[in-house]
Amino acid sequence: MKILHTADWHLGKRLDRFSRLEEQVLVMEEIVQIADEQNVDLILIAGDLFDNFNPGVEAIELFYKTLKRLSLNGKRPVIAISGNHDSPNLIDAPDPLARECGIILIGHPKATVQPFELEHFKISKSAEGFIEMELQHQNFPIRILHTPYANEIRLKEYFGEDKEAELNNVLAEHWKKNADYFCDENGVNLLMTHLYINKKGAPILEEPEGEKPIKIGNADLVFSDIIPPQIQYTALGHLHGFQNIGTDEKPVIYSSSPLCYSFSEAGQTKYVSIIDIKPNQQVSFEKIALQNGKKLVRKTFNSIENTVEWLNENPNTLVELALESETFLTADERKRLYQSHSGIVHLIPKIKNQETHESNLSEINLNQDIQTLFKDYFKSKNGGQEANEELINLFNEIASEK
């Protein structure tokens, strides 16, 4: 059977003042097309469905419409769990109606999904944090251990009050119990979770810039060696770059976000993971690159002319722009830059430091006129950089007011 694994949609996400909703509409369409072209049997969405606990109406509408299309109106099961950006209650709320469309929404850790049956598939077994699914056209069951994001409060509520228990021990026991009881070699065995998971002893994986952090110290660091040996593929969410922290035999995959959501992701290619899997056999997976969405670019220039030329040549981008110059940008220069490109997210002036001698700035003659004092002060605070004419005129205008 084939499975599509995606995560970290962050619907409703903004980059500073820029909405990404139009791009998200296009990339959701692309994911639906890939699912159909690959003829996948099951969709897994591993958390951070929305960008915040109270998403806007447009983001919610896009989410439900996308899930409905992915589910082929109930013919193909879709399973989505909440991440650290999601409100678990919001994710859970439409579940009774969603199930009628073949969509299973899981907001809380250790949730029990009530068994149900549709024309093309059924949930045949269920326990806390576990479901078993049977598809009409497959002669083997699919078992899924599911753990949505669990913060400290949810951990205490769902996994017990023992404050001394480490997250790894709690999860290891919970996953092992379900895997040992349900996951034999006669079915496909999967784990889906939204947690910060890394290989023990491996370098720390950086969380995306602007992402709500999960890892705080080592308390929330989950190691991949607690994943039960019965699990053939682990579908992860949270980190926005595609990577396998498991092995070729037992992949543990961050599928990536569908768009670049911060400048720390500039230049990244985004993917969905297509899994080919059978019971008691080594899984194979293919990452398929997503094409939609504006590129995020960090650029540094040292002249206005070169900057404007590049901006005009790259209109369909979102840019973090650094401009090195001998003096501060004037209002006219800023206006020219913003008029040449509609996607400048950040404009960072960098003043080239001029060599100064401390002896020249160590004493200030307080008998000088106010304008000269301002020039000396500005120079002392900015590495020897002279105030430009525009700043001087602005200072004189302020100083002349009574």
Q: What's the end-to-end separation, in Å?
A: 79 Å
Strand order of the largest sheet: 7-8-9-10-13-15-14
Number of strands: 20
Mean pLDDT: 87
Whole-angstrom Rg: 27 Å
- Helical amount: 25-40%
- Regions with little confidence, pLDDT below 50 for 5+ residues: 354-361
Structural shape: elongated
Structure class: alpha/beta
How many helices in DSSP terms?
11
Strand content: 15-25%
Query: What can be said about the biggest beta sheet?
Result: 7 strands, mixed
Overall description:
This protein is of the alpha/beta class. It contains eleven helices and 20 strands. Strands 7-8-9-10-13-15-14 form a seven-stranded mixed β-sheet, with helices on one face. The chain has a six-stranded mixed β-sheet with strand order 6-5-4-1-16-17. Strands 18-19-20 form a three-stranded parallel β-sheet, with helices on one face. The longest helix has 17 residues, at 21-37. It is elongated. Mean pLDDT is 87; it is low at 354-361.
